[in-house]
Amino acid sequence: MTVAAVIVAGGSGLRAGGEKPKQYQLIGGRPVIWWTLKAFLGHPGVAHVQPVIGEGHEEMFAESVAGLDVPLPVIGGSTRQDSCRIGVEAVERHDPTKVLIHDAARPFVSQDLISHVIAWLERFPAVIPGMPVAETLKYAPGGVVSRTVDRAGIWTAQTPQGFTYQAILAAHRRAQAEATANLTDDASVAEHAGIVISMIPGRHENRKLTTAEDIDIANRDMTARKLENLPDIRVGQGIDIHPFDTGDAVTLCGVAIPFTHRLQGHSDADVAMHALTDAILGAIGEGDIGTHFPPSDPQWKGAPSRIFLARAMELIEAKGGLIANVDITILAEAPKIAPHVPAMRAILAPLLRIDPSRIAIKATTMEKLGAIGRREGIMASATATVRLP
Which residue among 178, 196, 226 closes a domain? Predict the structure, then answer.
């Protein structure tokens, strides 16, 4: 049996709010879709994983799946039904015998549930997990209760929904040919084609993220899971200073701030990101930024400092650790830093794999004292709290 998985991520996710669709918003320091794809890529019973994304989401997807060995996505259609059909057709080249279809917005899917669905496909041509309805149901058109609905035998449906591959492929193509639309899940498509579907117990944690509140709760839950088995708490400190040079902008935490000068340095001279990199390296006992990126090496001339920070994160993750929080203080008479702090946090959050609320960035002057007070340059200090196994 060869199993393919189609991960559907084509929606706009408007109800979740935010600047990005919900599948690309951060929970536990990673985009929602990253966690979902990781679950299926890491399952030994799944041979092929096919993402389906929305038109215009290519750049967001590429940024969101960094670090995962995932195939190129296909572009979905105008409805979920269309996107699922496109995804199912896309894995035909792998000649799977079974296919799982899963919502990208369900990042808490467990290895156990995936295994359960795959195993049950040995007995039925279609299997969907779900939860029996436990609460009383009311039919209330217009907001006025008309009657109580018998909840006996009523289930909510989850994903991954599993199918015999050729059966669900034919069912989707039949629905398309008949112009049968608005089938809200693949089980509905299977029902329309007369395929027998088995219902199996799902998992409470395998919830679909829909609203901003869902994202917030998921972020707390995923972060707690990550921290649960990391009892070793380390704190590192970093300090850096760069003088001014002729230019028209300074780069701080990845943000180019228009100014009368630039900062002088071998790389982009991002003094704040340099201090933060040193703080992280110090917390894990891995030397300093000059150890890994010698200023004498010409390949780093003008390099963006996010490269240095990314290397520090690689070293942490190689040890099985993560960042808990960071605190950066920028010392400068000018330019004004505060208006740019939200943009800085937005850049650092995905690099550090943490929520922006775990990033503190402050600025202060030197009250005209010393070199910084004389506007000869900018200094930054940083601390980083790291959790390790």
Answer: 226
Q: What are phi and psi of 363, to 5 degrees?
A: -135, 145
pLDDT digits (tens, 9 = 90+) for 229-258: 899 999 999 999 999 999 999 999 999 999
Is the same domain home to 143 and 91?
yes
Distance of alpha carbon 170 from alpha carbon 91, whole angstroms: 14
CA dihedral 273, 278, 280, 282 (to 10 degrees): -170
Amino acid letter, residue 174 = R
* Whole-angstrom distance, CA of residue 91 vs CA of residue 163: 13
Same domain for 258 and 201: no
211: DSSP letter:
S
* Cβ proximity of 32 and 209 under 8 Å: yes
Contact (CB, 8 A) for 364 and 329: yes
Last residue of a domain, one of 226, 243, 275: 226
Q: What parts of the chain have a pLDDT lower than 50?
A: none
Q: Write the pLDDT tens digit of every residue in 176-214.
A: 999 999 899 999 999 999 999 999 999 999 999 999 999
| pTM metric for this prediction | 0.85
Longest C-alpha distance within the chain, in Å?
80
